[in-house]
């Protein structure tokens, strides 16, 4: 399955989720998504916070992201308004941001 470029994204985002699901299967893909959450979360509270996101984006080589961009990323997925992402909010956000998964 070919990847889908998000047309409104100036950075040329490629959506790899559909091909990952095809390759891994739905159950293993969800496990990998949960692993991604664990990599970004603050282990002391089990949530992705601004601080944990900032720290881990630096480790992932995404240090060019500005604080306001990180705050917007959190706000986009923060459904309960606590200023952080739990695992469900993170997974829902990832699915919403994947144009190739929209049916």
UniProtKB/TrEMBL annotation:
It comes from the Eukaryota. Keywords: Calcium. Coiled coil: none annotated. Residues 65-100 form the EF-hand domain. GO terms for molecular function: calcium ion binding. Pfam families: EF-hand_8. This is Calcium-binding protein pbp1. It comes from Nicotiana attenuata (Coyote tobacco).
